[in-house]
């Protein structure tokens, strides 16, 4: 349980710092139009990639209106892993424009078993994405 708590704190901290831009990113990058040609909000899309940049991306196609990470583990908790899926629900920058789903697994006897995730985890990731999207919009508008 202590290992999970450390992993959860590290994961939350990484997401929060990622949303703040502390991990870097190209500040001079132009993010193009507010909405892509297929209906995904460009700010939400870029903010999601920025926020989850430390996780390997499994699927990131605007046509699917989703970004799905591959499994991610930290070095201090190799027997626990998480996978995040972000679904885009709006073409505009709105608080309900993204929906996040988090799956957590623990390794037991060489098998990965799905275990509960704290309810606040997905909401924290959504907030980090929305906060980053707002910053990107403000920067684009100058």
Can you put this structure into words, describing what you see?
The protein is built from 3 helices and 6 strands, in the order H-H-E-E-E-E-E-E-H. The termini are far apart. It has helices at 2-20, 42-51, 119-141; strands at residues 57-61, 66-69, 72-74, 77-88, 98-108, 111-115. Strand 3 and strand 4 form a beta hairpin. Strands 1, 2, 3, 4, 5 and 6 form a 6-stranded antiparallel beta sheet that branches. It is 37% helix and 28% strand.
Structural class: alpha+beta
- Rounded mean pLDDT is 80
**Care to count the β-strands?**
6
Shape assignment: elongated
The string of secondary-structure elements, in order, is: HHEEEEEEH
Rg, please? 15 Å
Distance from N terminus to C terminus (CA atoms, Å) equals 46 Å
Please count the helical segments. Answer: 3
Spans of at least 5 consecutive residues whose pLDDT stays below 50 are 1-36
Strand portion, in percent?
25-35%
Helicity level:
25-40%
Compact summary:
The protein is an alpha+beta fold and 142 residues long. It has helices at 2-20, 42-51, 119-141; strands at residues 57-61, 66-69, 72-74, 77-88, 98-108, 111-115. Strands 1, 2, 3, 4, 5 and 6 form a 6-stranded antiparallel sheet that branches.
List the helices and strands and how they pair.
Elements: H1 2-20, H2 42-51, E1 57-61, E2 66-69, E3 72-74, E4 77-88, E5 98-108, E6 111-115, H3 119-141
Antiparallel strand pairs: 1-2, 2-4, 3-4, 4-5, 5-6
Helix pairs in contact: 1-3, 2-3
């Amino acid at each position: 349980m202590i290992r999970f708590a450390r992993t959860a704190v590290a994961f939350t901290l990484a997401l929060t710092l990622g949303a703040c831009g502390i991990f870097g990113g190209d500040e001079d990058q132009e993010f193009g139009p507010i909405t892509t040609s297929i209906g995904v909000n460009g700010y939400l899309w870029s903010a999601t990639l920025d926020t989850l940049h430390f996780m390997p991306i499994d699927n990131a196609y605007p046509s699917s209106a989703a970004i799905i990470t591959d499994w991610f583990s930290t070095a201090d908790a190799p027997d626990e892993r998480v996978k995040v899926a972000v679904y885009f629900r709006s073409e505009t920058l709105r608080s309900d424009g993204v929906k996040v789903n988090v799956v957590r697994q623990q390794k037991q006897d060489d098998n990965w078993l799905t275990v509960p995730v704290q309810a606040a985890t997905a909401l924290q990731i959504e907030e980090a994405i929305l906060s980053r999207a707002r910053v990107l919009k403000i920067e684009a508008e100058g």
